[in-house]
Amino acid sequence: MKKLLKGEYFGNHYNKNQFNDLLITDTEYTHKKVDWHYHQNPYFTYLLQGKLFEENKKENYYLNSGSLLFHNWQDVHHNIKPPEFARGFHIEMTSDWFDLYDIKSFDFEGSIHLENPLIKQKMNAIFLESKVIDVNSQISIDMLLVDVFNAIKSNENSIENQTPIWVEQLKEILHHSPKTCTSLGNLSTLLNIHPVHLSREFPKYFKTTIGNYIRTQKLNKALLLVAKNQLSMTEICYECEFYDQSHFINSFKKMYQQTPLKVSKIIANVNLLQF
């Protein structure tokens, strides 16, 4: 079975950025099929474009643009890529990085499929930071990454503490049927709980308000569409269900500190490197 060393991924790299104990790559996947393998270091895969099928020893995933996975170093898996273009963003961490921030990598065994939009928003911020490298990039990325692991651990603890059934039902609705989230009353009816109870308990399990959770999902989707550079800003605005372009731009800038157009230019300013 093949062991991939630090920075090894199957494809062509747009960027490879080495930080202290961190390696960040932006990669176009070129192999139709990748046989069973594992990586030297734990890493995140954030699928920016396209689709992938991934299978490990316990489960399998059909991944679309916006899918986020964490793989620990011992996670053995294989991949199949459809004919369409596929691009992924990776963050690879050495054991020294985990030791520095007192994070125990063995607390995150195997492969974890991360759907929380608050975690994805932090991953988007890391992605953008990796495109604007300056003296502050290292500390910014480290802080965001520590926040990501804290959020994953918090979510794992919530699962272990037996969250109510309605929480998992609501996650399913928010992630896969967001258009049904028209009002607090509608959601509470779907979940068969009182709207006051839903309003009070939601931040306990989701670490934010319902409105911000849904808004973050929309902006995560918008950033990926901006990265693809295939739609106009007006088309992205309506694809992500914002009221108008002004509302979209203001919301985007508030979250990412840049306008969508500026982010598009930042992301486009890369050269394809062959490895």
TrEMBL record:
Amino-acid biosynthesis listed as a keyword: no
Lineage: Bacteria, Pseudomonadati, Bacteroidota, Flavobacteriia, Flavobacteriales
SMART domains the UniProt entry points to: HTH_ARAC
GO molecular function: DNA-binding transcription factor activity; sequence-specific DNA binding
Keywords from the named record: DNA-binding, Transcription, Transcription regulation
Segments forming domain HTH araC/xylS-type: 168-266
Pfam hit, one: HTH_18
Protein name, entry field: AraC family transcriptional regulator
Source organism per UniProt: Polaribacter porphyrae
SUPFAM superfamilies: Homeodomain-like (SSF46689)
InterPro entries in alphabetical order: Homeodomain-like_sf (IPR009057), HTH_AraC (IPR018060)
Organism domain of life: Bacteria
